[in-house]
Amino acid sequence: MDMDVDGASRPKEGKAILVILVGAPGSGKSTFCEEVMRSSTRPWIRVCQDTIGNGKAGSKAQCLSSAASALKDHKSVFIDRCNLDREQRSEFVKLGDVHKIDVHAVVLDLPAKLCISRSVKRTGHEGNLQGGKAAAVVNRMLQKKELPKLSEGYSRITFCQSESDVKGAISTYGSLGPLDNLPHGCFGQKNPDSKVQVGIMKFLKKVPAPDAAARPDGSGDTTSQNPGKNDYFHKDVEMASPILDNPNLESKEGESQGVAFDGSHASRFSLDDAPTLAFPSISTSDFQFNYEKAADIIVEKVAEFTAKLGNARLVLVDLTHKSKILSLVKAKASEKHIDTQKFLTHVGDITKLHSTGGLNCNVIANAANWRLKPGGGGVNAAIFNAAGPELESATKERAKSLSPGNAVVVPLPASSPLFVTEGVTHVIHVLGPNMNPQRPNCLNNDYEKGCKILQDAYASLFEGFASIVRTQAGQSREENENIVKKALKLQDKSECHSRNNLTNIDQKNKRDADHGSEKSKKCKGIQDSFGVSSDSRDERVDSEHRRNGGSMNKAWGSWAQALHQMAMHPEKHKDDLLEISEDVVVLNDLYPKAKKHVLILSRTRGVDCLEDVQKEHFQLLKKMHDVGLKWARKLLDENASLVFRLGYHSAPSMRQLHLHVISQDFDSKHMKNKKHWNSFNTAFFRDSIDVMDEVSSHGKATLKDDDKLLSMELRCHRCRSAHPNIPRLKSHIGSCKAPFPAYLLENGRLVHAPAEP
Ligand code: AMP
Question: Spans of biased composition, class Basic and acidic residues (predicted)?
């Protein structure tokens, strides 16, 4: 780009300029500023809202004042925040008049795909917008993109729609000396109406937009602050002062507090995707615990846990409009300067937080009774009612009763209405101390004991939530990438109802996006299979093990439940099953990855995958292996040219332990991609024989669940030759006659037809 450098008319002292960056997270705004500042001889200041509060996120007001003082010092300024709409930019533009300087906009209008994948991949982002949540946030932000126009008050606008445009702009600004000017006008705009990827939004949003008007207490919610936008995620509330400096929780009753989007790098915006626990006040209503004391304990425990919870947040919920506990807690939280991004209060029905309040809470706490039974009124009755019989049976599997001061985490079955409509994946039952003489175990005003129990109750509750969060956070970067890839792939496809009802956690736990997309074609059938009746079979429950770890807190998406449902209710799936016995069911894989591909499904509840397998499951593994061998032999009788391998995926995509019995031709239209191939042809596939050995000698199976295995190059499983893509690999294996590698020929890992006599 040419510079308008006219030596004769140069002023003695250079004039500062103000450059407003405009772009979604991941568009490269910070990198742009850093690169220019590295090479420029002009004094620059970067004003970044994500770091302006002593290295933490601050307010727009802070940005304005910092920009103003830099301009006063004749320094040029970058405004490094998203600034995606006119309103967000207008006050910065006004600085131009005040300081008699030129205001420029540099628009990093890069493809959404690129911004998303960068945001997902990055680590250590200043505004903590990274990982799986970033995809949804970036797309949401792009919905409100409004490209700048000269009429807003700029003297120059540079549009960058590709990485090479960005490089050009960096070099233009980077070589701008203290006395140089740039020509006025619009540069580089190719496609002013670039399309926002609404399709991705549809996929990522999944659950129908909440209806603010439908709120039972009529109080409206955060969405009502922004009329015309009925999606909680879309609220666009200007905060005059930084959230962190303003913890006085001044919003009206009936609103969630502490969440606002102000056009900065979306760090606050991303909170809507954060794992969230909604909890009622424990023991204060029916158990008549002193409100002041209870509020102190809530605030103390919240303060302790918010420090440990990463980006997760806690929401204290109360149904009543003028709730005493809510106002006490608000005041005390404010005194303690609790981070209002991590702790909110909300007036509403805890069973309808999403559908009527627009608040996404993946976990809710229940103020339970000691018998862990429905009824009794209050929150307990409401939650059991809303969650359906599924919660009762899932609770039974976890614990029979609860003592005061304890909590129990219960994953919610996908068929529960609370899961489907509210996106709740776990309920944590918690029991507090009782001060009500009409109720069991009354403490007779012994507040020394009572406070200790209430502290324990909140600690157990928050610990339970933290363990769910940890499990979810354990997902790898590759998984995040899969989410994005899948989101992008699906953006233009229409989606069926059940997919629209998946939660964020569903997305996060889709190890194998490809099963998912195959599912989406058939999801009606699967949805049908979710009808769980209350007369569920009395399965063996390994609750102790599950309480101690395993995949207990893994939130399987609703689409990943089909096998589990078949194992639990084979009577409903008779037509699909090849064999039903006490311990296992056998079925043809719905998307066979070879000519013959059968699944042997354990019927033991609580053993969702290999990770859950322990020593006492050895007999189960043996049974599955024997049934697998029987089916391999049966299939060999029909076609003696086949060769079978029996094994487990280290990290399966479908819930319920299942053994693959798969012929080694891999001749199937469903064998479509690298992941499919590598899941059966790398160490990710654990031979049943080896799994049994390991479990009998060390009590557990070795898992090779590094996602790198799934993205390895494609190699023939016989001769190990490498191939660039699946069609080429398939055409090679169709004719490869090389013997199988020695490793596979050992120990009976391959099952052949008996040799001819
Ligand atoms: P994984 O969980 O990765 O061990 O593999 C799950 C297997 O289940 C895949 O081979 C899928 O093709 C198969 N599958 C997925 N959904 C169904 C279904 N509804 N019925 C039968 N097989 C299924």
Answer: 507-520, 535-547
Distance of CA 719 to the CA centre of its chain: 40
Q: Say if CB 363 and CB 279 are below 8 A apart.
A: no
Which has the closest alpha carbon to 367: 431, 285, 425, 452? 431
**In contact, 207 and 348? CB cutoff 8 Å:** no
For residue 124, the model assigns a pLDDT of 62
Give percent helix, percent strand, percent coil of the chain, each to the nearest 5: 40, 15, 45
CB of 591 sitting under 6 A from ligand 1: yes
Q: Which of 261, 278, 277 is nearest to 269 (CA)?
A: 261
Task: Answer whether 586's CB lies under 8 Å from 599's CB.
Answer: yes
pTM over 0.70: no
8-state DSSP, 53: B
Q: Are the C-beta atoms of residues 160 and 111 closer than 8 Å to each other?
A: no
**How far is the C-alpha of 234 from the C-alpha of 249, rounded, in Å?**
21
Q: If you measure from the C-alpha of residue 311 to the centroid of ligand 1, how many angstroms do you get, rounded to a whole number? A: 33
Residue nearest to ligand 1 atom 11, measured at CA: 591
Confirm or reject: Cβ of 654 under 6 Å from ligand 1.
yes
Kindly report the number of other CB atoms within 10 A of residue 432's CB atom: 28
CA distances, 702 to each of 395, 623, 698 (Å): 30, 19, 9
Short-list 366, 326, 371, 328, CA closest to 347:
326
Tokens of 317: 């919920």
Tokens of 143: 């919905």
Tell me whether the CATH fold assigned to 17-187 matches the one assigned to 560-752: no
Compute the Cα dihedral for 571, 601, 625, 471 and give only its sign: negative
Mention the CATH class of domain 560-752: alpha beta
Q: Which tokens hold the place of 561?
A: 């439940």
CA of 623 to the centre of ligand 1 (A): 20
CA of 125 to the centre of ligand 1 (A): 37
Predicted confidence (pLDDT) per residue in 677-718, tens digit: 999 999 999 999 999 999 999 999 999 988 889 999 999 999
DSSP 281-306: PSSSSTT---HHHHHHHHHHHHHHHH
- Beta-carbon contacts of 221 under 8 Å, excluding residues fewer than 6 positions away, are 210, 212, 215, 232, 254, 255, 256, 348, 356, 357, 358, 359
Is the model more confident about 311 or about 95?
Answer: 95
Query: Residues 42, 76: contact at Cβ < 8 Å?
Result: yes
Spell out the domain ranges in the chain: 17-187, 276-471, 560-752
Q: What integer pLDDT is reported at residue 606 of this predicted model?
A: 85
Helices (H), 423-512: 447-473, 477-490, 497-500, 504-508
For a mutational test of ligand 1's pocket, the pick from 514, 524, 599, 681, i.e. the residue with the most ligand atoms closer than 8 A to its C-beta, is 599
d(CA 507, CA 699): 31
544 vs 656, more confident = 656
Phi, psi (rounded to 5 degrees) for 227: -55, 145
All residues at 6 or more sequence positions from 571 whose CB lies less than 8 Å from its CB, including other chains: none
Partners of residue 365 on adjacent β-strands: 428
CATH of domain 276-471: 3.40.220
Compute the CA torsion angle 454, 456, 462, 467 (nearest 10 deg).
-160
Residue nearest to atom 6 of ligand 1 (CA): 654
Of 119, 77, 116, 80, the residue nearest 96 (C-alpha):
77
Cβ of 589 closer than 6 Å to ligand 1, yes or no, is: yes
Active site residues: 658
CATH, domain 17-187, list 2.60.120.10, 3.40.50.300, 3.30.310.50, 3.40.190.10: 3.40.50.300
Per the listing, tokens 């600004």 go with 173
140: confidence class by pLDDT, cuts 50, 70, 90? confident
What is the best residue among 512, 515, 655 to mutate for testing ligand 1's pocket, by most ligand atoms within 8 Å of CB? 515
> Encoding tokens for residue 596?
């013959």
Q: Is the CB of 590 under 6 A from ligand 1?
A: yes
Cα gap 743→752, rounded to integer Å:
15
